[in-house]
Amino acid sequence: MPVPSILSRIAGGLGVAVALAACGGSGDRVTAPPPAQPGTTTTTGPATQPESQSCDAAERGYRLEFPKAWFTNDGGIAEPCRFFHPEPFTLPPQTEATGIAISVRLNPVSFSRVSPTPEGSPGVEVLGHRTTTIAGRPAVRAETRTAGQGLLPPGTRATGWFVDAGDGTLVATTSEATAAGRYEDNVKVLDAMMHSLRLSDRKSTCSTGRATPAATRQAELPQAVSATRMAIIEAARACDYDRLAELALAGDSQFTYSFGGGGRPAAFWREQEAAGRAPLRMLVELLDGPAATRGAGATTQYLWPAAYAFERWEQVPASARDDLRRMYGEEDLRRFEQFGSYVGHRVGITQSGDWIFFVGGD
Predict the structure, then answer these.
(1) Cβ-based burial of 35 (10 A; exposed 0-12, middle 13-18, buried ≥19)
(2) Measured between alpha carbons, how far is 239 from 206 in angstroms, rounded to an integer?
(3) For residues 252 and 346, what is the distance between their CA atoms, to the nearest angstrom?
(4) Selection from 102, 106, 81, 105 nearest residue 28 by Cα
(5) Residues facing 159 on adjacent strands
(6) Confidence of residue 262 (pLDDT cuts 50, 70, 90)
(7) Structure pTM?
(8) Domains in the chain: boundaries
(9) What is the pLDDT of residue 221?
(10) 65-88 residue pLDDT tens
(11) Superfamily for the 3-203 domain
(12) Angle (nearest 5°) at CA 344 between 343 and 350
């Protein structure tokens, strides 16, 4: 059965609203095709069947179909084709979007590290695990249920797709927490969307050519910290190594980018990108999450990810561990637990806005 027909039948049977997080001010509004007029088209890019519409995230290298009656965000607060919902919604400008039926994003971490295993992980029970192929790429479909504390209440079911995108992993999810009684219907929409997925083979000039979130402000940060964070994200998204080096070396403190030192961060990051290690995308992904703080003499350091602020792994709260899953697979989390602390990449900015480190390893 063609995908558009599946989407049409699913969309037609959905009638219960999903509760969305309250949001005020200007946010990222959804887009849907306007009413058709004689001699006009209601979509951009390749023509779609009447039952569905196409969402083309060209910068991130993917395109997919979703129900014609549904809505998606149009960029700004979040990259386009990131969220899909059966009713209009507005993304909050400074907080996480919640209550939205389906989320699709490109994770900068390789498929082998992100895709779940049949065994599951602490706090997550695997109800179903299937390896398959989507758009000619290796993929995994996993059904899970939370078994411990985390962002989702215990017992919450979720379905996720993980598709090898070459230089990253496309992750698409829905859960009972966003379903308001229509979880099974949303799973059917998600499955159909994934079978319509098309991935581009175009290579970007650096790892931030795809899957990089827009630079959004975090209201809780001091102005100087926020300004430096925004400047770093914008330079990394533009693949501007020289600007990143300027930001790194502009402060009074010595900047750390590798164990072994040196004063050539731009050259180091270029070499890392050429080797396929994607440091710029990791940098943006880290800064896209919540920060934590720690005192350092007379100043305060703002740290990403929040897990890095804790000396021992058992001290890391569930919310900080869940945030790590945006960037790491379950094997990595087990490695951190075995080591006794978070030892992945981290970023530090002082309260005066001095970028003091972006480094990985223990």
Answers:
(1) exposed
(2) 6
(3) 20
(4) 81
(5) 143, 174
(6) low
(7) 0.54
(8) 3-203, 208-359
(9) 95
(10) 999 999 998 766 677 899 999 999
(11) Mog1/PsbP, alpha/beta/alpha sandwich (3.40.1000.10)
(12) 90
